[in-house]
Design goal:
The chain is an alpha+beta fold and 332 residues long. The protein has helices at 4-14, 59-63, 68-96, 141-147, 195-199, 227-234, 251-254, 261-267, 283-295, and strands at 18-23, 45-52, 101-104, 152-153, 159-160, 168-175, 205-215, 218-225. The chain has a four-stranded antiparallel beta sheet, sandwiched between helices. Bound molecules: iron/sulfur cluster. Residues 154-156, 190-196, 288-289, 292-293 line the site of iron/sulfur cluster (SF4).
């Protein structure tokens, strides 16, 4: 008989770092366009998997000297390669036990969503019948992780686990196997220090205003979040935090575009292996938050040495938005 314990053991053996299980009733109240029950109406359980981002993937960005590891392996590589491979094996394991397993990968997941507003955009797809949402339903992985008992929302709106703080990526598998759910996490990881607010380069997180939802009868709250500001900063739209930004880049031209848009791509010829580069490296919501949680001893996973050893760097004056010249071409 397939049990939650067997699924979790297999998930860990195959490479997932955390595995929690939610009953589908816990998604009651989700917006129709984000409700996983429309993907698999007969599903009995949502298996949520978290994959840690090894903190060394962010070392080069923390030092300001090597950005590729996080972009290639910590973001796109995890989403597009590693997690789908592990999910496939878990799906096959479940289906070998006689139940169906529908993966919800964290990749190409916004097909019905406007890049500009992050809201459902009716011009991008249409429902196949009036009773259904339009494809693709966009599952909120943070909500799924909360419903599966893996942790809580931080003030930054990042999902925090007691093991890794904000450093993980999340995916789901929906199954008709009647797996027992985990209890909702009622501990505390986020201590509301608001260092994420102070160190977010995009100024995307409010210090005082909040947003909240209810998941499985529990109020979930975070600092009001500006998605566009986050997206522009995320790909390096801020000259002070992007040593690759070229001369002539005018932030005014891309400031309202999701992920900086094509305009930013023209001004930042950075290799893009799987998606736009995450050169900002989550300075506030991930790196500063992690450093704080580690310093306060609030994480279960410990290291011999601290992550943050020096004050975070920031380009200033002429260095900001000057072209990078790694091979000293300008001096020849
Ligand atoms: S930086 Fe502080 S307030 Fe922000 S999410 Fe992390 S623990 Fe919470």
């Amino acid at each position: 008989m397939l049990t939650s314990a067997k699924v979790k053991k297999m998930a860990r053996a195959l490479g997932a770092d955390l595995c929690g299980i939610a009953s589908m009733e816990r998604f009651e109240g989700a917006p129709k366009q984000q409700d996983p029950r429309y993907i698999f109406p007969d599903a009995k359980a949502c298996i949520t998997l978290a994959f840690r981002i090894p903190r060394g993937y962010l070392r080069g960005i923390e030092e300001g000297t090597y950005f590729n590891a996080y972009t290639a392996m910590g973001y796109g590589g995890l989403n597009a390669i590693y997690m789908p491979v592990v999910m496939r094996e878990i799906c096959c394991f479940i289906e070998d036990n006689g139940f169906e397993a529908a993966p919800v990968p964290n990749f190409y997941s916004g097909s019905s969503i406007s890049f500009a507003t992050q809201q459902y955009d009716p011009t991008r797809s249409r429902a196949v019948s009036p009773d259904k949402p339009s494809p693709d339903v966009l599952v909120d992985f943070r909500v799924a992780a909360f419903a599966s008992g893996l942790g809580e929302f931080g003030w930054s709106k990042m999902f925090l686990t007691p093991e890794f703080g904000p450093m993980q990526r999340i995916v789901c598998i929906l199954t008709d196997a009647p797996l027992a759910p985990d209890p909702i996490f009622t501990g505390k990881v986020c201590d509301r220090c608001k260092i994420c607010v102070a160190q977010c380069t995009g100024c995307a997180i409010s210090k005082d205003e909040t947003e909240s939802i209810t998941v499985a009868g529990h109020k979930v709250e975070w600092g009001k979040f500006d998605y566009i500001k986050c997206s522009v900063a995320y790909v390096g739209g801020l000259p002070e935090y992007n040593p690759f930004l070229q001369i002539g880049a005018d932030p005014e031209k891309y400031k309202d575009q999701y992920s900086g848009g094509a305009m930013l791509d023209k001004h930042m010829p950075y290799p893009v292996p799987f998606s736009r580069p995450a050169v900002e490296g989550a300075r506030g919501c991930m790196r500063a938050c992690y450093a704080h949680l580690e310093e306060k001893g609030l994480l279960k996973k410990h290291f011999v040495n601290r992550f943050r050893k020096r004050a975070p760097w920031k380009l200033a004056g002429e260095a900001a938005a000057l072209p990078s010249d790694p091979f000293n071409v300008g001096k020849e």
